[in-house]
Amino acid sequence: MEQSFFAKVGRFTDKAEETLIAFFLGAMTLLTFANVVMRYLFNGNILWALELTVFMFAWMVLVGASYGVKKHFHIGVDVLINLAPPAGRKIYALIAISCCLAFSILLLIGSWNYWYPFATERAWYETDDIPMPEMLQFLADWLNEGERYEKLPRFIPYMALPVGMAMLTFRFLQIAYQILTGKLDRMIAGHEAEEDLDALKAELADVEDVMGVKNKTKEQ
């Protein structure tokens, strides 16, 4: 049951992370390019471009933190882990993941406590320059006592905090489960460069063997 839960939620989280990161990176690039064109060719400016780019960058970083845990992109030191026996590695890994979970849960609680007032009693608090899309004006009836928003309410971009921390906490829970079940003995990927180099050498050796067989066949 637990494995099924982590597998299903993990697949959804994978797609969500990759989609959000790709979207925000592409949107930031296009918006920045458009603003440069407006400034230098038409002597104009997209007033809300900078603020929106900052918010999109925040979303990308916070979602990317979760994605980095899944892909083992975060920096780690595994000197003691490599020297320890298998049982010791599991203990080290459990200590490390416990610290990471405590950290992410504290961040999740703090980010929720920070964001929630912006979605309730401070739902009227708008961004400085970003215009409110017409398709989202229904939120005014729900959260702003029917008064239309002129600018994007801050609870929308600020949602990156609880969403990002929730994803990060889930990824740490996923790794904790893999450590407990014996699928992993550490949080970080060990000796990635050496492993990639060995894999490349093996591929090159296979190619050389194939080329050698072909050359012998031609000579015959």
TrEMBL record:
TM stretches of this protein: 20-42, 48-70, 91-115, 155-177
Could you give a GO molecular-function term held by this entry?
transmembrane transporter activity
Mind listing the GO biological process terms from this record?
C4-dicarboxylate transport
**Where the protein is mainly located, per its record?**
membrane
Q: Where in the cell is it found?
A: Cell inner membrane
An example Gene Ontology CC term for this record? plasma membrane
Stated membrane topology is:
Multi-pass membrane protein
Q: Which UniProt keywords apply?
A: Cell inner membrane, Cell membrane, Membrane, Transmembrane, Transmembrane helix, Transport
**Residues in Tripartite ATP-independent periplasmic transporters DctQ component domain copies:** 28-180
Please give the superkingdom of this protein's source: Bacteria
Q: What does this protein do?
A: Part of the tripartite ATP-independent periplasmic (TRAP) transport system.
Q: How does it assemble?
A: The complex comprises the extracytoplasmic solute receptor protein and the two transmembrane proteins.
User: Which family is this sequence assigned to?
Assistant: Belongs to the TRAP transporter small permease family.
The name this protein goes by in its record: TRAP transporter small permease protein
Recorded source organism is Vibrio diazotrophicus
| Lineage, opening ranks | Bacteria, Pseudomonadati, Pseudomonadota, Gammaproteobacteria, Vibrionales
